[in-house]
Every structure is written in structure tokens, then in C-alpha cells.
DNA sequence: CATGAATGAGAATTCATTCAT
DNA sequence: CATGAATGAATTCTCATTCAT
């Protein structure tokens, strides 16, 4: 996590250089695991598979990780954190509720589509994580949903969103749409991740907005 | 299949009454497995778990089934078949493309929400099925998507749907929204499955339709 | 074993007629099992297979037998007993050793070929029997071999069999030849079981006899 | 296959020394399995038994093999291949048919007796192999038999073998005799494997040859 | 007599993980 | 750093056998 060496233990046997080399290789392990989990599923990918792809034996990857689940967790966690970062930014902005909503839809769609592997694992394999880790994810998701729900309600009060729509259902609809991108988006397709975001926004806001 | 007993070999045939009793218990096994797969995931549910829930030993459920995967397949297949049946009906109807779309959205949403366990397994555990079985499901999904795509295009030509929208993205958006119902719908919630369908329709068609 | 009812228990609930019917069906079970063991091997034939062939469920055959191994044992035992009966007859006869040998070779070859199923099981599946039952078979085999060995030695002393041959090896050779018949003999082949016996005799005695 | 290490990916390749060590242990596994299959039969020997004999847990032997059946197959296959090698040599030689026959009988008898464990499994446990593997063995056996049949017929035409004998039955008799060696030969007996071969030859050719 | 429903004791196989070298 | 060798716990599935109905 931290980029700085720990000066508290000066006589540590692991040199800075070694640590850097190891962490570079660790990145490779994560990348490879992510790709394989994405392609074959977490359960169906064995540590042996991952090792083979890296030119290692299965036991050897334990020099870089401490458990198979940690691999999945770290992949998912990174996606999760990115998600959190733009969410906080939008939340803190002083735009109108409708504009925040617009911003979240475009950003989250683009983010999902841009990080296909990770988003896919985030949405499909979170069940393979331990109970606490699942809880953390669920809680964060709930925050997002709650925010969107609030924005819609505010916009309804402000008269910019149709008041005959159920805000809860609208919230679910939005996330269903936005989060589905990992299922079909392909980077070599005719549209960019950002274009999808804009189009989704157009669609859903078209349905929401007062005419 | 046949309603008549075969009196020639009295011992060889399982009686009608027995068949009914056994098939009732088989149904229980399916139901229990479905619920447990839904709650804990297919991979995390062992045959021993299923047996225990039914008051059976792990080996005993093989009196009713022939393999764990068959259990999942049968659950998913039933959902799949129901899906197919209303899809064919809509496809064959002589409504306008927009009305067919409306019909599919409301029906599929309601269907997903009504059959929570099955739909959930259908969308999340299909990867645990054998390759051929996965193919069958994927192919059927593709048919649905293609039909919706066609309807949207026709409606655009007819001028009832905004022509500035990408029909492909709209299709994906619709299915993302509709198929997400299994993730949050709860039968004891404030809205019925049918109401959700109608609301979804309102939303998405509001975004699609020419103003 | 015995053909007579047991008068000691006059009030027995099982009538004579019932016992007869049961024993006829028992015979069918044995016959079917023998054929199936022969075709697929003892281990590979399940009680369910046997039941199905008879139009019964697997549990039902336990009305006629007490264990799967008993089926095999009884089949093998019958062959074994037949073997013993002609062996004792030859042993007790007052023919010359060479004639006894001739008689045993022809009879045993013909017997093996005539009772293909049973002889096959006797030679290939005896290992599936319990230790004691295996012992009984081995002991009887040893008696046969010892007798043949004696006859050859006597014949050598009498000058009718070449004295330069090792009588033990000759004994093994004879049984190897004779007992191999179950592997290739087919009742619908060009030669009868008896003809094979005579031909085998011709061959092996041609090699043994003093010229 | 290649004797040169691949220096480009040092970690990926198993070193030559390691390969040798592992393969030595693999040989031990095979040897142990062969002995146990021989003693108790293939079906009655569990992977747990084999492991225990080697000081391993049942799962651990899968480090060396991929399936229990493969163990049996490899044992049997080695015997099979040796068989094939001397058979081809004799087949290609330009000896007289009778001499080829003599050669095959002595060699095959000695081979059977020398490789007691393997030959025994080859003749008694081939049924436990998969259908294709069984086919390969049956086909090869048929080739041997056909060659012997041809040699006998030729020898009959050449007048060196009695023409009144049925060549097919003689062929079966020869193989019955020769292949029986595994049933009774013991390496610590009074006669060597080669002596048995010669004696068998004496016997059977004595019966075949024109006087 | 035969069935239906279960038992229970394995058996083969898989795989994440450990650790001395 | 990486390997080789093993562990151990779980998991699916099989099958002979039992017994109340």
C-alpha cells in the first residue's frame, strides 16, 4: 500500500531493490489472475493455471500472494476504490441533482466498460469473497444507490424529474442498465466506453425528465 | 407418457401412484437445491448440504437425481423454457414493434421478479453448466436481443422511436435494466412484480419515444 | 441342497408350493447373474443391472439371494462340484495312469467348453470371493494337479511317458491348455466341445508319449 | 525429449536432475501399484492402499499419476510393448515356420515367467481398462495368434507338422499353455524361466511334429 | 412378492496451501 | 526466488444392502 520503506526496522533483510522487483512481479500475478478469473471464472481457475501462465509452479505464486482469495479481493478492491473515488467527487460537487445523476451515469458506465475484467469480477465473483469482504462491497453499493435515490427525489421536488415515477424503481433501473455494460462491451467495438455512457444517459434521462 | 399400466410385467413397472409420490419428492429436492444455490451459490452448496436440508444423507439424493449439475440445469432450464414461451408468443403477435417491445419489457421484468430464485441462477450460475448447455442459453439470449434490436429499428423507421439513438446500445440498456430485477426485487416489497414491469416500461419507453 | 421339505418345522409359514416357485425364480436370478458377470465382469455388474434384466428393482433380488457374492459363489461352486464329480470317478477307476490322464484331459476340456459361462467365472472371478471360498477352490485345484502329476510319474516309471520331461512342468502345461478353452471356445463354432477335448489329448499326449 | 535446458525461461522448466528424481519416484509408484494389483487385484486395491504402502496419503499419488486406470495401463502397456518387440523380430526372421514357432514359444513363455507381475495383470486385469485400451490389446493378441496359425499351416504343407491336426485348435492350445505360466511360475522355483520355455517347446512340438 | 426410499461406507479425484531445500 | 513434494480436507458419486409397507 505504502510506497515508503519502513525505517522502523533498519536491519530488515529485504532490500529496497528486492522489494521493488517483487512488487513488479506481484503486479503481473494480479494481472494474470484477473484475466484468467474473467475468462474461466474464479472457481474454475486453479493456482496451477495461474502459475503455468506465468511460467511458475503453483506453489511459487505464494511468494507473491498469501491466498487465492486475496487475489480476487485485491482485483475487486481496486475497482471498488476507483468507484468510490469518483463517487465521492460527484457527491461533493455543487451541481444540481440531475446533473450529478447525469455525471454518475456517464462516469460509471465508462468506468465499467473501461475496466472490463475488474468490473466483471466485481459484479460476478464477489460471492467468492469472505463474508466481511462481501459486506464491505454491499455497503458501498448501498451508498451509491441511496445517493441516486436522493438525487431523483430532489429532482422530483424541483420539478425536473417526472413525479409520477417511483424513485426507487428508477434507481434500480439506472444501476441495472449502467452495470450491465461489462456483459457485452468490447473495447474493439464501434463505440467507445465514453460514448456508451453518454448514450445511456440520454436514454434514461429521456425517460425521467419532465417534458 | 402412457396412462395405461402394462399388466404383462407387473413387477417391472413402477406404479402410477409411486411415480407421483417420487416425483413429488424430486420436486422438493429441486426446490431445496434451487433455494440453496440461490443463497450460497452453486459451487458453495455441496450435495451433503442439500441432503442435510432434506433430512437425507449426501448419497441419498442420487436416488432422485443423477448429477449435481443436472440439478442446476433443470432449475435453469425451466426458467429458460418459460422465457421462450412468452417470447415466441410476442414474436408471433401482430402488434406494432413498439407494442411488442412494451410487452416484452413488462412480461420479462415481471417474470424475472416472480421467479426470483430461478432467474437469479439463470443469470449468475450459467457458467457452472457444461459447455453445450451454456451454448443453448447463450443462443436463446441472442435471439431475444436480436428481436428487440429489430423492433427498435423498425420503430425508428416508422418514426415512433427517436432516430438519433443507437439501437444496439438501447437494446443492451433494456436488457440490463430488465434482467437486473433478480438482484433487488423482494416479493414482500411495496410493489408487485407486474408493477415493476410497467414502471420499467414507462421509463425506458419515455427515453426512446419520439416526443 | 436338499430336495426334501424339512418336517421338523411343521408349522412353517412357507408352503411347499411357494418354496418351489421361489426356487424356480431363484434359478432365473442365478442364470441371469451368471450371464451378466460373464459379459461385463463381476465388479462391473451391479445388483441394479441384474434386477433390471429380470424386471425387478435391485432391492427385490434380495428376496432370492442374501448377498451379491453368494451369487458368484453359487455359480462357481456348481462348476466346481461338477469338476469334482468326474474327477473322483476317474481317480477311482482302475485304468492305466495314461488312460486316466487321457480321460481327464478330454472330459475337463469338454466340460470347460460346455459350461462356458461358469468355467469362465470360475477361472477369472474367483478372486472376488471371500478368502475361505478362494481357499476351497485352490485346494481342489491342487488335488487335480497332484493327481495328474502322479499319473505322469507313474507312466514315466512304466515307460509309457518320456522320462526326460519334467512331470511338474508337463502338468502345468496340460492344465494351461485345457483350462484355456473358456477364452476362445464358442458353441456355434465348427468344432464341438468333445472334439476339442480329443484334439487337445492328441496334441499333448503326442508330446508326452514315448516314441 | 531435449537434453538442453531452456535458459530463456529458467523458472518455467523443471531441471534435469529434478526430472530424474521425480521419475524415479514415479517408477516406485508404478512398481508398488503393480505388486499390489497382482496381490489383491486391481479393483480391490484402492489409491489409499497404494499411498499407504509408499508412505503417502491417497491424494498424494496424484502428484505422479493422473488416474488409477493409467497406473494399470502403463504396467500392462510395458508388458505389451515388450511382447510386440520380440514378436516383430521373430516375424521378420527368415527361419522356417517351425523354428519361428519354437522361438515364439520359448521366448513368450520365458517372458511371461520373467515378468510375473506384469504378465499376470496383462492376462487377468485387462478388463478393467477402458474400451479402446482393451481393443488395442485384443488386436495385438489376434495378430500373434494369426501368425502362429499361419506358421502351423505352412509347416503342415511342408510336411513338418502332422496334417491331421486342426491348426486352429493347436494354436489355441499353444497359447493356453504358454500364457498360463504366470499362474504358477515362481522365480525361486527349481527351474528358470528359460528352462520352462524349452520344456514347453519340447512338449508341444513333440505333439505337433510328424514322426 | 415386490417396491420405494433410504443408508452408510467407501472410492477416486481435486486443489489450495505449506515448507524444506 | 522457485521448486518439488507432500498434505489434508473436501467433494462428487457409487452401490450393496435393509426394511417398512
Automatic annotation (TrEMBL), chains A, B, C, D:
<dbReference type="InterPro" id="IPR050109">
    <property type="entry name" value="HTH-type_TetR-like_transc_reg"/>
</dbReference>
<dbReference type="Pfam" id="PF00440">
    <property type="entry name" value="TetR_N"/>
</dbReference>
<keyword id="KW-0678">Repressor</keyword>
<keyword id="KW-0804">Transcription</keyword>
<dbReference type="InterPro" id="IPR036271">
    <property type="entry name" value="Tet_transcr_reg_TetR-rel_C_sf"/>
</dbReference>
<feature type="domain" description="HTH tetR-type">
    <location>
        <begin position="23"/>
        <end position="83"/>
    </location>
</feature>
<keyword id="KW-0805">Transcription regulation</keyword>
<dbReference type="InterPro" id="IPR009057">
    <property type="entry name" value="Homeodomain-like_sf"/>
</dbReference>
<protein>
    <submittedName>
        <fullName>TetR/AcrR family transcriptional regulator</fullName>
    </submittedName>
</protein>
<feature type="DNA-binding region" description="H-T-H motif">
    <location>
        <begin position="46"/>
        <end position="65"/>
    </location>
</feature>
<feature type="region of interest" description="Disordered">
    <location>
        <begin position="1"/>
        <end position="25"/>
    </location>
</feature>
<keyword id="KW-0238">DNA-binding</keyword>
<dbReference type="InterPro" id="IPR041490">
    <property type="entry name" value="KstR2_TetR_C"/>
</dbReference>
<dbReference type="InterPro" id="IPR001647">
    <property type="entry name" value="HTH_TetR"/>
</dbReference>
<dbReference type="Pfam" id="PF17932">
    <property type="entry name" value="TetR_C_24"/>
</dbReference>
Amino acid at each position: 500500500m505504502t510506497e515508503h520503506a519502513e525505517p522502523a526496522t533498519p536491519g530488515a533483510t529485504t532490500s529496497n531493490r528486492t522489494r521493488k522487483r517483487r512488487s513488479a512481479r506481484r503486479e503481473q500475478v494480479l494481472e494474470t489472475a484477473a484475466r484468467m478469473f474473467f475468462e474461466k471464472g474464479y472457481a474454475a481457475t486453479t493456482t496451477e493455471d495461474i502459475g503455468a501462465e506465468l511460467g511458475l509452479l503453483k506453489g511459487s505464486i505464494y511468494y507473491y500472494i498469501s491466498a487465492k482469495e486475496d487475489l480476487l479481493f485485491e482485483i475487486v478492491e481496486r475497482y471498488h476504490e476507483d468507484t468510490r473515488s469518483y463517487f465521492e467527487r460527484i457527491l461533493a460537487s455543487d451541481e444540481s441533482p440531475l446533473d450529478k445523476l447525469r455525471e454518475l451515469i456517464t462516469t460509471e458506465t465508462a468506468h465499467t466498460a473501461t475496466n472490463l475484467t475488474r468490473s466483471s469480477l466485481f459484479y460476478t465473483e464477489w460471492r467468492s469473497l469472505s463474508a466481511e469482504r462481501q459486506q464491505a462491497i454491499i455497503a458501498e453499493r448501498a451508498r451509491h444507490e441511496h445517493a441516486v435515490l436522493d438525487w431523483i427525489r430532489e429532482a422530483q421536488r424541483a420539478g425536473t424529474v417526472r413525479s409520477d415515477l417511483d424513485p426507487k424503481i428508477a434507481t434500480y433501473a439506472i444501476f441495472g442498465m449502467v452495470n450491465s455494460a461489462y456483459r457485452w462491451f468490447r473495447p474493439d467495438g464501434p463505440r467507445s466506453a465514453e460514448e456508451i455512457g453518454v448514450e445511456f444517459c440520454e436514454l434514461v434521462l429521456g425517460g425521467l425528465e419532465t417534458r
